[in-house]
Amino acid sequence: SEIEKGDYGHFMLKEIYEQSAVIKNTLSGRVSANHVLEEAFGIKAKDIFDKVNNVQIVACGTSFHAGLITKYWLENIAKMPCQVDIASDYRYRNIIVRPGTLFVTISQSGETADTLAALRYADELGYVGSLAICNVATSSLVRESDFSLLTMAGREIGVASTKAFTTQLCALLLLSLVLGRRNGMTDESEAQHVTDLHKLPGLVDQVLELDEAIKELSISFADKNHALFLGRGNQYPVAKEGALKLKEISYIHAEAYPAGELKHGPLALVDDKMPVIAVAPNDELLGKLKGNLAEVSARGGKLFVFADESGGFDDDGDYKLIRMPAVPDVLAPILYTVPLQLLSYHVAILKGTDVDHPRNLAKSVTVE
Ligand code: G6P
């Protein structure tokens, strides 16, 4: 049956609001109260996982950003190295595969030409197996991979990916946990992560309540030609995803930088016409990030900070502040993605673009 927008003006907004429900769907049957149910990865998975000591991720677009975040999880949770590549680049390189490497593709559609070509190329390179994280059960990517874990986002219609991304992240966190189990992660640690995951849908709903405040914020962007997104650690890929969303649907040139790299170039661009958006959970890098933000303020840059309510940012500071709920470090990249989706949506509305069908872009790029 035809999917309707309902009361939402656009599919993108509907899909943003569906996120807590589809995250629940993606977790359902894959986790118990405190444990990942590994069978969810299929019967072939166990033997392959037992051989894995390294992970190669390949994807395009927003799915590539999910891969970038996963690298931090694999390092921290599974204590495993991880390489992340853009499919169109990977497929034309001379890839050197270390023994024990799992090949992981991430794709909403499962039909992206470059990602499929990368999988076919990888098939001859000696990986221990290929895993697809995908939203379409009947896709070529799922059919051609050794095994798959489906994201249960439901059909995504807006060209700019939202709910597919956050459910990919949930699936990839489950992957990090099953690999972590084999590499020294304790049962207590797994139980903590899974307990936290069960709280994620509620946290996402809390962030959606910031919608009005974010809409207000969007007014400051509608007349801008550029924007800079900053994050540190696993928030750097979140900043990249925020910048991509803004580019895709509002046509504002946006760039993301790891905040520590500011002084090596982008600081030269900062003036009072350059909005700078920062994602600032209360993690171990917060102090460093604050130092970087002070550098922006000192140059007259207009700061917009999405910050943990416990992060010590003052309401009367030299920035516009959106207070985010406290969130476990591991889940912060998923949660901080949501306000940036809303921001780009509201900016696009102010600019009057075709939100669900941005110019020159396709939902699924099935040709090279
Ligand atoms: C296109 C879409 C993006 C998507 C990318 C990768 O560029 O517009 O939203 O992230 O393809 O698509 P995939 O289906 O492989 O995730």
UniProtKB/TrEMBL annotation:
It is found in: Cytoplasm. The active site is at residue 363. One of its GO terms (biological process) is amino sugar biosynthetic process. GO terms for molecular function: carbohydrate derivative binding; glutamine-fructose-6-phosphate transaminase (isomerizing) activity. Residues 45-185, 217-358 form the SIS domain. Keywords: Aminotransferase, Cytoplasm, Glutamine amidotransferase, Repeat, Transferase. It comes from the Bacteria. It catalyses: D-fructose 6-phosphate + L-glutamine = D-glucosamine 6-phosphate + L-glutamate. Its EC number is 2.6.1.16. It is an enzyme of class 2 (transferase). GO terms for cellular component: cytosol. Catalyzes the first step in hexosamine metabolism, converting fructose-6P into glucosamine-6P using glutamine as a nitrogen source. Homodimer. This is Glutamine--fructose-6-phosphate aminotransferase [isomerizing]. It comes from Pseudohongiella acticola. The lineage of its organism: Bacteria, Pseudomonadati, Pseudomonadota, Gammaproteobacteria, Pseudomonadales. The gene is glmS. The chain holds residues 244 to 611 of 611 of the full protein.
